[in-house]
């Protein structure tokens, strides 16, 4: 298959293996905190009542103590990874950096394509990198359990696994539409011992309010977050944990970027373009952090591209402003690219990308021109997913396939121009629980939803206005 391409592939394969695996002792021992190097730091979380930065004490009512320290740390570039977490990482890390030789050949592109594959654990995605860290700190603090929300289910699954490992109780509010459409993912969580409640539910005040106002609603991530926070507040010995958006989550996910960079460095490969899908920004932030650090220090230049669904275009059509992280407005205000906490995205099969806001770190990088963003429509995402699956073997998650779409687009541009660019993208997970989506695509029943400006207006109008929050 490789011999007759005549495009340098044979030579390349001699030098660069199909999979670059690091040794176990090359798993990072520290997370990398990009905030320490950012010239413009991400804006602090604000207390919605006082509009003052949230203090550590205020945050500790919701989050584990050590995670609050990490959330507020804008100065230490390297944070040691506790040995227990390193030991857990060894179960499924280092993850491979794969050279997509087969995809390159299929596309007949001179581009060199690599992907960092995070789907080789039971939860099926990168989410476990932060779940295990958050569960560890909860256990270390002597807590009984944690509460959380999950959209598509990957985060809830990862957290269930992590809580089972440390013997913690795990209460998951799962967006109702996923709870109903993805019974198997729900059962994986229950198998690991989690209690899974469809959201909105009757178990919280905010859930009852949302149900009264929107009977028959299929729920949203912002609404499940409100319920999970309320559930935590009412329980002694519990804290709330979140699977994306926050600085601490992005920090834990830097194991992706650190490993990717170490693997590339081993073979003296320097990427031109780095691509990741963006939901709340954790995998993208984790992947790009070491590279963005080099850019900020003026050592190298990369094109960094975040990819989001056209149906939920936080970066590309949102505004950079302080906004609520949840529908019930119980969480602090974060300065981020947002479509408004009241925005309910239309149906999209990449459930993990249906969030109205974005990581404050990535929002600042985007605002400062260090990264770019594009939005793509879901049928073209599934075209790319299918093309990829057929040649590379892995069945990708719909979320991850957003990055595949743009990697293929960039590789096809290289075909036009003859440029041999090196493209690295994050393949965050597998799509075995997303077969309803694949079925719709295979049956030709998948539709694209691109909101009109009028559809975005109510969400944007709902963003709080106060002095200093002009947009
Ligand atoms: C497989 C996969 N990739 C990507 C994402 C997007 O999340 P984030 O932007 O935090 O990486 C999700 C979220 O659920 C996911 O499950």
Helix fraction bin: 40-55%
3D shape: globular
What ligand species are in this complex?
A: pyridoxal-5'-phosphate
The span between the termini is: 54 Å
Q: Count the helices. How many?
A: 20
3D structure, described in words:
Residues 1-8 have low confidence and may be disordered. Helix 5 (101-107) packs across helix 17. This protein has a 7-stranded mixed β-sheet with strand order 1-4-5-15-10-11-14, sandwiched between helices. Strands 8-7-6-9 form a 4-stranded parallel β-sheet, with helices on both faces. Strands 2-3 form a two-stranded antiparallel ribbon. The chain is globular, with a radius of gyration of 21 Å. Helix content is 41%, strand content 15%. The protein has 471 residues and is an alpha/beta fold. It binds pyridoxal-5'-phosphate. Pyridoxal-5'-phosphate binds at residues 125, 151-152, 154-155, 244, 277-284, 352-353, 397, 399-400, 428-429.
């Amino acid at each position: 298959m490789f011999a007759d391409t005549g495009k340098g592939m044979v030579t390349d394969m001699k030098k660069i293996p199909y999979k670059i695996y690091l040794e176990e002792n090359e798993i990072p021992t520290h997370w990398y905190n990009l905030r320490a190097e950012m010239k413009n730091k991400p804006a602090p979380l604000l207390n919605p009542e006082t509009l003052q930065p949230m203090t550590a004490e205020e945050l500790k009512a919701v989050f584990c103590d050590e995670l609050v320290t990490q959330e507020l740390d804008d100065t230490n570039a390297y944070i040691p990874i506790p040995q227990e977490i390193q030991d857990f990482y060894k179960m499924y890390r280092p993850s491979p950096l794969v050279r997509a030789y087969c995809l390159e050949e299929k596309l007949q592109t001179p581009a060199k394509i690599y992907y960092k594959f995070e789907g080789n654990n039971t939860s099926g995605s990168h989410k476990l990198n932060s779940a295990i860290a958050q569960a560890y700190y909860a256990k270390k603090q002597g807590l009984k359990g944690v509460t959380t929300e999950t959209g598509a289910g990957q985060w809830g699954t990862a957290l269930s696994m992590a809580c089972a490992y440390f013997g913690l109780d795990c209460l998951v509010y799962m967006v109702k539409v996923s709870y109903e459409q993805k019974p198997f993912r729900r059962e994986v969580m229950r198998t690991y011992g989690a209690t899974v409640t469809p959201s909105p539910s009757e178990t919280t005040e905010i859930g009852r309010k949302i149900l009264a106002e929107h009977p028959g609603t299929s729920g949203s991530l912002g609404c499940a977050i409100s319920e999970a926070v309320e559930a935590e507040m009412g329980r002694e010995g519990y804290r709330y944990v979140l699977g994306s958006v926050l600085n601490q989550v992005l920090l834990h996910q830097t194991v992706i970027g650190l490993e990717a960079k170490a693997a590339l460095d081993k073979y003296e490969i320097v990427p031109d373009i780095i691509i990741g899908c963006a939901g709340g920004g954790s995998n993208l932030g984790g992947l790009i952090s070491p590279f963005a650090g080099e850019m900020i220090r003026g050592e190298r230049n990369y094109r960094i591209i975040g990819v989001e669904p056209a149906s939920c275009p936080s970066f590309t059509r949102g505004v950079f402003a302080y906004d609520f992280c949840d529908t019930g407005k119980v969480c602090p205000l974060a300065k981020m690219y947002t479509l408004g906490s009241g925005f309910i995205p239309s149906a999209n099969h990449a459930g993990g990308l249906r969030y109205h806001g974005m990581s404050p770190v990535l929002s600042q990088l985007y605002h400062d021109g260090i990264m770019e963003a594009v939005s793509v429509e879901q049928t073209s995402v599934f075209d790319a997913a299918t093309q990829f699956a057929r040649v590379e073997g892995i069945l990708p998650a719909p979320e991850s396939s957003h990055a595949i779409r743009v990697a293929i687009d960039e590789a096809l541009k290289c075909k036009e121009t003859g440029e041999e660019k090196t493209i690295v993208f994050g393949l965050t997970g597998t799509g075995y629980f997303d077969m309803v989506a694949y079925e719709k695509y295979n049956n030709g029943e998948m539709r694209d939803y691109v909101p009109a400006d009028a559809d975005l207006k109510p969400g944007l109008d709902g963003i709080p206005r106060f002095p200093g929050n002009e947009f």
